[in-house]
């Protein structure tokens, strides 16, 4: 169980990672970008591992744009970055591109784009588990599960994780959450909730059934990452804050905000503190 952190923009040296780890987080999704370099990536991966968290770096440049995926692949496969990945391959996962594709991406385009991405990344000698976000800004879980078997088969390592970002609110989401998580098990697919918060992405109403998501994930046995351990989210702003902010202080565990953030991290029966398990090497 784990959190996202907008590292490339708010914390390029990972000074927030000890606070995140203090609640028992076993992984961290690291926001990165093509403007960053191999040295900066290595700094954040090293910091995550020093704090006993599996690092999951992602590139944010192709958000909402399926045509941006080849650019992220080019970045991941440059020799300096490949060398860093190889140094960290015992622990890290590689999230190819954040939320690439809008709501109009066809199944065939999504499948062909990521088949090519998988091939290029593996041909570069990268063997770590790969994470693929859904299109529709991460929210099209139905499409993700439709194409997932073919994408898993396209990977010579057979080591791909599929990530659904849950930003659709309403009680009807309970059924969608259960159906999607159970279908992934039936298909033999690893599905995680790579992002979610309390507020939906349409009008920022705080109606995401996040406690139900946590309980179903625990029941089915899937992982999740809440968005995000930050105090400067630009979406769903209210005054100087945002519904997506989880802390008032990046570097202090005491900055944890009340409400959904404290539920996720500490207070809910299925919170990070109550359910997260670290690798045996890090216990």
Task: Explain what you see.
The chain is an alpha/beta fold and 283 residues long. It has one domain (2-282): Glycosidases (TIM Barrel, Alpha-Beta Barrel). It has helices at 7-10, 17-21, 38-50, 69-76, 79-87, 107-123, 141-154, 173-187, 210-220, 260-267, 272-275, and strands spanning 2-5, 27-32, 54-59, 94-95, 130-133, 160-166, 190-196, 225-226, 237-238, 241-242. A four-stranded parallel sheet has the order 3-2-1-8. It is globular and about 45 Å long.
Q: What's this entry about, in short?
A:
Helices cover 38% and strands 15% of the residues.
CATH topology: TIM Barrel
Average predicted confidence as pLDDT: 97
CATH architecture: Alpha-Beta Barrel
CATH superfamily label: Glycosidases
Largest sheet: 4 strands, parallel
**H and E order:** EHHEHEHHEHEHEHEHEEEHH
Proportion of beta-strand residues = 5-15%
Q: Which short descriptors sum up this protein?
A:
single chain, 4-stranded parallel sheet, 38% helix, 10 strands, 283 residues, alpha/beta, TIM Barrel, 15% strand, 11 helices
Please render the helix and strand layout as text:
Elements: E1 2-5, H1 7-10, H2 17-21, E2 27-32, H3 38-50, E3 54-59, H4 69-76, H5 79-87, E4 94-95, H6 107-123, E5 130-133, H7 141-154, E6 160-166, H8 173-187, E7 190-196, H9 210-220, E8 225-226, E9 237-238, E10 241-242, H10 260-267, H11 272-275
Parallel strand pairs: 1-2, 1-8, 2-3, 4-5, 5-6, 6-7
Antiparallel strand pairs: 9-10
Helix pairs in contact: 3-5, 4-6, 6-7, 7-8, 8-9
């Amino acid at each position: 169980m784990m959190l996202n952190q907008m590292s490339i923009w708010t914390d390029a040296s990972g000074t927030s990672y000890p606070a995140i780890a203090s609640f028992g987080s076993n992984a961290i999704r690291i926001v990165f970008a093509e403007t960053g370099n191999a040295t900066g990536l290595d700094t954040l991966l090293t910091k995550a591992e020093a704090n006993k968290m599996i690092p999951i770096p992602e590139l944010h440049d192709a958000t909402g744009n399926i045509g941006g995926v080849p650019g992220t692949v080019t970045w991941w496969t440059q020799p300096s970055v490949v060398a860093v990945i190889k140094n960290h391959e015992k622990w890290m996962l590689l999230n190819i591109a954040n939320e690439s594709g809008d709501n109009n991406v066809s199944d065939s385009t999504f499948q062909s784009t990521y088949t090519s991405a998988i091939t290029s990344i593996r041909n570069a000698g990268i063997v770590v588990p790969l994470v693929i976000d859904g299109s529709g800004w991460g929210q099209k879980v139905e499409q993700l599960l439709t194409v997932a078997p073919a994408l898993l088969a396209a990977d010579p390592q057979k080591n791909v994780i599929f990530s659904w970002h849950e930003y659709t609110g309403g009680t009807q989401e309970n059924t969608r959450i259960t159906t999607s998580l159970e279908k992934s098990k039936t298909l033999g697919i690893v599905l995680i909730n790579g992002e979610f918060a309390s507020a939906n992405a349409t009008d920022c109403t705080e109606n995401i059934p996040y406690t139900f998501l946590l309980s179903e994930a625990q029941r089915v046995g899937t992982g999740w990452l809440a968005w995000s351990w930050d105090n400067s989210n630009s979406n769903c702003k209210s005054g100087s804050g945002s519904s997506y902010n989880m802390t008032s202080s990046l570097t202090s565990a005491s900055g944890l905000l009340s409400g959904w953030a404290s539920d996720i991290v500490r207070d809910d029966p299925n919170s990070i503190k109550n359910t997260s398990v670290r690798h045996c090497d890090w216990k």
